[in-house]
C-alpha cells in the first residue's frame, strides 16, 4: 500500500509539473473573435526593444485610458500570433505596444493584448518549432549587440526585453521620413542592423546619442546601399 501511495504521488507531481508548463488559454470576446490574454502570458520573438520610442507609446496608452478609450485602443492593437509547443503564444509584432501597456499607469485589468492566431504549431517539437519560425522569418534573433542568438534563448516574457539602440535609431529615422512603414515583421530591426553594418556605433538609446547619429543615418537611408531594404524611399 505504501508503494502504491508513492506511485500515485509521483504521478501527481509529474502531471502537475506538466500542467504548470502549459500556457494559459486565452478568452475570446464574442464581438471581436480575437484571443485576449494578459501581457505577461505572451512570448516575444525578439530579444530587445528600441527604448527611445517607449515614452511616446506609454503616453499614448495612458491618454487612451484617461479619455475612456482604452478598450478601443487595445482592440486596435491586435498582435499576429503563432501558438507554439506547450500552447504558448508567440507574438510576431506589437512588442513595443505590449511593453508600453505593461508599463503604463493604468489598472491591471487593461494590461491585456488581443491576439490574431495565424498559425497553430503547438504539435511541433521545440526544435521543429524553432526551425519553422526561422524559416518563415517569424523571429528576429539578433540581440542589442547585433550578435545572433539561439531561438531557445529568447526571453520568456516581454518585461525581459532588452534595449536595442539601433532599433531606436531606426525608429527615429523612420519618423524623420528616412524610410516608410511597410507591413514587414521586424522592419526597424532590418534598418537598425543596416546602420550597424554601415559603421554606426551606439551604446544606448539615450536621446543625445541617438540624435548625434541621426544625420548620418538619414543620409545612409537614402543611399544606394539601402535600396533593397523594406520601406526604402527612392
One letter per element, helices H and strands E, the order comes to HEEEEHHEEHEHEHHHH
* CATH homologous superfamily descriptor of the largest domain: Conserved hypothetical protein from pyrococcus furiosus pfu- 392566-001, ParB domain
CATH class of the largest domain: Alpha Beta
What class would the helix/strand composition place it in? Answer: alpha/beta
For the largest beta sheet, what order do the strands appear in spatially? 1-2-7-5-6-3
**CATH architecture level-2 label of the largest domain:** Alpha-Beta Complex
Q: Shape from CA axes?
A: globular
Radius of gyration: 20 Å
Question: What number of structural domains do the residues give?
Answer: 2
User: Total strand count, please?
Assistant: 8
CATH topology of the largest domain: Conserved hypothetical protein from pyrococcus furiosus pfu- 392566-001, ParB domain
Distance between the termini: 79 Å
Number of helices: 9
Roughly how much helix do the residues carry, as a percent range? 25-40%
Largest sheet: 6 strands, mixed
How much of the sequence lies in strands comes to 5-15%
Q: Give the rounded overall mean pLDDT.
A: 89
Amino acid at each position: 500500500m505504501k508503494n502504491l501511495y508513492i506511485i500515485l504521488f509521483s504521478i501527481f507531481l509529474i502531471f502537475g509539473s506538466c500542467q504548470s508548463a502549459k500556457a494559459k488559454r486565452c478568452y475570446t470576446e464574442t464581438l471581436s473573435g480575437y484571443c485576449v490574454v494578459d501581457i505577461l502570458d505572451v512570448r516575444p520573438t525578439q530579444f530587445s526593444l528600441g527604448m527611445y520610442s517607449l515614452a511616446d507609446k506609454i503616453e499614448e496608452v495612458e491618454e487612451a485610458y484617461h479619455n475612456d478609450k482604452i478598450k478601443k485602443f487595445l482592440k486596435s492593437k491586435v498582435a499576429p500570433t503563432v501558438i507554439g509547443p506547450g500552447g504558448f503564444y508567440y507574438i510576431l509584432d506589437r512588442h513595443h505596444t505590449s511593453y508600453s501597456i505593461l508599463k503604463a499607469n493604468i489598472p491591471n485589468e487593461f494590461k491585456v493584448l488581443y491576439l490574431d492566431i495565424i498559425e497553430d504549431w503547438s504539435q511541433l517539437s521545440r526544435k521543429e518549432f524553432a526551425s519553422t519560425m526561422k524559416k518563415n522569418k517569424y523571429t528576429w534573433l539578433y540581440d542589442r549587440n547585433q550578435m545572433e542568438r539561439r531561438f531557445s534563448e529568447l526571453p520568456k516574457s516581454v518585461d525581459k526585453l532588452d534595449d536595442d539602440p539601433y532599433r531606436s535609431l531606426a525608429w527615429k529615422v523612420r519618423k524623420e521620413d528616412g524610410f516608410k512603414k511597410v507591413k514587414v515583421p521586424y522592419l526597424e530591426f532590418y534598418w537598425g542592423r543596416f546602420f550597424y553594418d554601415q559603421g554606426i556605433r551606439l551604446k544606448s538609446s539615450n536621446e543625445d546619442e541617438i540624435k548625434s547619429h541621426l544625420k548620418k543615418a538619414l543620409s545612409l537611408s537614402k543611399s544606394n546601399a539601402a535600396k533593397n531594404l523594406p520601406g526604402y524611399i527612392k
